[in-house]
């Protein structure tokens, strides 16, 4: 089952540098030894690839987005160097794409490289550092490496509370990520406390029709399924699915996740025929998305 999509990541990758070429002001040996005109042309081309890649990413067309962003990353690395902040920004985004496409070794490599650059250039408390720690934490949850995920996600939660306060959706995202971690490690009481805290913030700040609210309902449904409280779980997952079917496209991966959670619950309650229907819908979504 897919783990939580990190909403901080979505905020980060939405923050495309306004002009990649303009941000190429940090001098590098590569720049000093190459034609300035050629560099600017290549960076302008990379900027266009990045923007087009972000269009595909926002459509959740991950394969095409990754292809474009990897080409842009290659250009930035060659022209600006691997230690440039723009290069690190691309590493971080490509790392997130690799997480979502289940290419975990490539994801870790890109995210760790980005983290090292951000820390060196910006310091341990910079938002880019915290966002990258969040991305790494999400990766480690997906691969069930909870010992490495825990300290990172707890650090992110502490930082986001300090940065945004306790009523901000970005803080709620970090709280629900910790809640998911506790769910995966069987700490159900702590998990519920964190998920409900995040849910209430989303309800107040984003409303009950927002995808983040629905996603947290679905995670609570997973929690109650794990606890064996199937009645409460079904109510939560059905709410999440109802919202998802209204606010998401019919082929959205988050909708597939809700369907998969519901299928697990249906299997637990011996409704196999209904479960197969949900599983088929989810599989169709994922297979179609994998082609893009």
Proportion of strand residues: under 5%
Say what oligomer this is. Answer: single chain
- Gross morphology: globular
**What is the overall number of helices?**
14
Average residue pLDDT:
88
Q: In total, how many beta strands?
A: 0
CATH architecture of one domain: Alpha Horseshoe
Largest sheet: none
Order of secondary-structure elements: HHHHHHHHHHHHHH
Helix content: over 70%
Low-confidence stretches: 1-26
Give the structural class: mainly alpha
Q: What is the CATH class name of one domain? A: Mainly Alpha
Rounded to an integer in angstroms, the radius of gyration calculated over CA atoms is 20 Å
Note the topology.
Layout: H1 7-14, H2 29-32, H3 36-58, H4 62-80, H5 85-100, H6 104-122, H7 127-142, H8 146-164, H9 169-184, H10 188-205, H11 211-227, H12 230-247, H13 253-268, H14 272-290
């Amino acid at each position: 089952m897919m783990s939580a999509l990190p909403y901080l990541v979505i905020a980060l990758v939405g923050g495309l540098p306004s002009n990649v070429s303009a941000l190429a002001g940090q001098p590098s040996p590569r720049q000093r030894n190459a034609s300035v005109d050629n560099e600017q042309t290549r960076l302008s081309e990379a900027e266009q690839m990045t923007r087009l890649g972000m269009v595909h990413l926002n459509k959740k067309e991950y394969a095409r987005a990754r292809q474009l962003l990897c080409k842009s990353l290659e250009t930035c690395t060659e022209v600006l160097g691997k230690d440039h902040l723009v290069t690190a920004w691309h590493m971080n985004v490509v790392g997130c794409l690799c997480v979502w496409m289940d290419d975990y070794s490539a994801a870790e490599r890109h995210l760790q490289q980005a983290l090292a650059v951000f820390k060196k250039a910006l310091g341990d408390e910079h938002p880019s550092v915290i966002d990258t720690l969040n991305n790494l934490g999400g990766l480690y949850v997906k691969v069930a490496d909870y010992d490495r995920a825990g300290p990172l996600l707890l650090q992110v939660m502490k930082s986001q509370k300090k940065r945004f306060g306790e009523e901000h959706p970005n803080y709620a995202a970090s709280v629900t990520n910790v809640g998911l971690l506790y769910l995966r490690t069987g700490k159900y009481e702590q998990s519920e406390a964190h998920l409900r805290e995040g849910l209430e913030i989303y309800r107040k700040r984003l409303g009950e029709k927002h995808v983040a609210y629905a996603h947290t309902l679905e995670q609570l449904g997973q929690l109650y399924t794990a606890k064996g409280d199937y009645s409460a779980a079904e109510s939560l997952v059905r709410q999440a699915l109802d919202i998802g079917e209204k606010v998401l496209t019919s082929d959205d991966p988050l909708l597939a996740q809700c369907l998969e959670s519901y299928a697990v619950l249906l299997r637990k309650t011996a409704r196999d025929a209904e479960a197969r229907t949900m599983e088929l819908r989810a599989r169709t979504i994922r297979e179609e998305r994998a082609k893009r």
